[in-house]
Amino acid sequence: MDETNTTEEKKDISGHPNSLEENYEETDVFAWANNLVQYVDDLNIKLYFFNKNYVVYRTKLGGEVAKQLRPLFIDEILEFILGGADKGLIVRGFEDAEKEDNVLQRTRVKNVDKLVEVLNWLKTQKHEIEEFKEEEHDLKRMKGVIAECTHPEMDKAFYLVKHLPTNQIMKGHTAWMLKDGVFKPFDQLSALKIPGENQLLVVNQDLFVFNQAKLKSLFGYDAKAASIAAQKVAEIEANFKLSFAEGASLQSLIKGKPAAIKKLQKIEPSLVKQDDLVDHADEMGIDLMTDETGAIIIMDDKDVTKFVNLLNDDYIESPMTGQRYEIIKKRLLKPEDEEAALLKEVL
Description:
Layout: E1 4-6, H1 29-36, E2 44-51, E3 56-58, H2 63-66, H3 69-86, E4 90-93, E5 103-108, H4 113-124, E6 130-131, H5 134-137, E7 142-150, E8 158-163, E9 169-171, E10 176-179, E11 182-185, E12 190-192, E13 200-203, E14 206-209, H6 212-219, H7 223-239, E15 242-245, H8 250-254, H9 258-264, H10 274-284, E16 296-298, H11 301-311, E17 315-317, E18 324-326, H12 335-346
Parallel strand pairs: 3-6, 4-5, 15-16
Antiparallel strand pairs: 1-15, 2-3, 2-7, 5-14, 7-8, 8-13, 9-12, 10-11, 13-14, 17-18
């Protein structure tokens, strides 16, 4: 089939040919921090909000607030990295190990779809970014804040991202202010406290993660789960012959789909043979197509869902009623469970 390709062509994690990988160079964050020191006093820092739909808004800052951006976003990051270098801090990819003390975790920016979406606003759609106005956009709908940092002598901007918890937002009808010893209503004012902790740093093509929970809450990306899923995809591709639309891959199709990623972590591809899976799909009335070479055709999200469900043995026919079901949740019956059930019957 001209419009499809098999998994024999190796692709990177986002589904692009490996030739694109040649352009990637891992960022030396220690060298980056050392170089930044000479520019830090004169950085141009612009602040943006993004909402739960990852739409970005520019902010208008007063002079006194603008002066707080460096200590709030930059200083702690530099202290952590430069101080950590003297204490043996190491940088490690999520796929290599769990978070440990004195380890800064890193992943590729391109792996985090929603982060890429936010950065694209700043890199290619700046002319479309609206100014944030509380009466139109509602501060409580803002999910995160991103600081874009530039300097005339720096080749590229870098970005710092923080989560905006709604409990740190105070609005007029729910808060008071203390002035001259007297509590007064906020009236139409809103107040915001930006977290001081280090969370996420984007330098070149790398995302450095100081707080893994914030990465998940901000962009819905569980790096460890995604890493395990990528390993499972490799096992699946080694055990099954698959055919995709041009430019697609199993990895690219499951990207951004937490349910599929979660299910893939539990699958053991070697337990199922391709012919048996195709026959089972036919028995269950599941429309799973194959091409003239016998490769399973996966064209879209629906095909991925069916294929993953079949691998996970999620379709069953009741021996009592003949009804066919898709199992949403299941628990493997272990030998001790069987023994407990027999003992219960005896008692």
